[in-house]
Amino acid sequence: MRRILGIALAVLLVGGVIAVIAIGGQKPEGTATKTVRGVIGSEKSEFFRDPDVVKALADKGYTVKTETSGSWAMDQLALKDFDFAFPSSTEPTEGIEEKAGVKGAQNTKPFFSPLVVIARSNAAKVLSEHGLAKMNGKNTGTLLLGPFLKAAAEDKKWQELQGGTSAYPELAGTVFVKTTDPTTSNSGALFLATTSNVANGTTVVANDADIDRTAPLMKKLISVQGALEQSTDGPFRAFISGSGEPLILAYESQVASLLQQKQAPGDMVVLYPDTTVNSPHTFVPISDKAKELGSLLATDPKLRSLVVRHGFRPTEGVAEFTAATAPHTAYLNSGLTGLRQVSAPTVKVLMALAARAKG
Hints:
Blueprint lengths: L1 H22 L10 E7 L4 H5 L1 H9 L2 E7 L15 E3 L6 H8 L7 E6 L1 E5 L1 H9 L3 E3 L4 E4 L1 H9 L4 H4 L24 H14 L8 H16 L9 H8 L6 E5 H9 L8 E5 L1 E2 L2 E7 L7 H7 L1 H9 L3 E2 L3 H7 L15 E2 L5 H12 L1
Parallel strand pairs: 1-2, 1-3, 7-9, 10-13
Antiparallel strand pairs: 3-11, 4-11, 4-12, 5-8, 5-9, 6-7
Helix pairs in contact: 8-9, 9-15, 12-13
């Protein structure tokens, strides 16, 4: 009798498995069907690590594994080992496509983020009092690049701006913005694109004569910093922890993400340069497996909401960003009002300028 029952039970179990297969073998919700590997700018690391993002991507059939690199250094990698590259702007994509052998790939620009300079309150106050910045409130304002670059050209010291006093002893040495390496990092390169435009009479640097004209000042901006980092992540974290330089180049997304996560911003003033080059994060599919992922990031409502939560501005998504960051207007310029938008130089010109600036 036990034998008969055992056989019957086995038949029932096998039948159940067959029935599941016959019904369709549907995967449980949230189970990814393919794994893709990508190289990204470090400012997107937290986005791809977010459990909610992981689940939203899995629901669409993706498990995404990422490694970080400076955007301008991605074309030095073995890109055929990756399914996609995701630099922080459009400019590096030409070299990436050529190295990966995917020239003419259907790139997507799902979101962007402008550059900002975050400052200690005392530093912002000194800059404002001497016409290098304009405050729009206690924690936000505009960095006036014309006067700032004039001060940089004259090697101005913080003590000089303070009239020779030491009212703020933490402000010492030459006035500069801490950036990343412009030869490998997108933020550093775009800082040169912006400042060189102002130094070139508010005209995009376009030829050797323009490079010769602006390179000496660009070299001052970079050489005064000492060692350069490959991404904005390190300097930003140092600033938030209370260390680091008094003026740091960052992406607005880093600030907006911090505020939306209700993390304490500490002693922070957000200065938007009055001339700016927006940074459209550009998704480059390398393998067919990742072909639709960029479009998903741009169009899927759930993923778009998570993009905003991490501080990025969806392409054509001003209203979404404005609504999400409404509680944080004390720090953020949601409409980017009062800023002059300029184009970046060509890749060839910008890299030549970066090489000259780095010396």
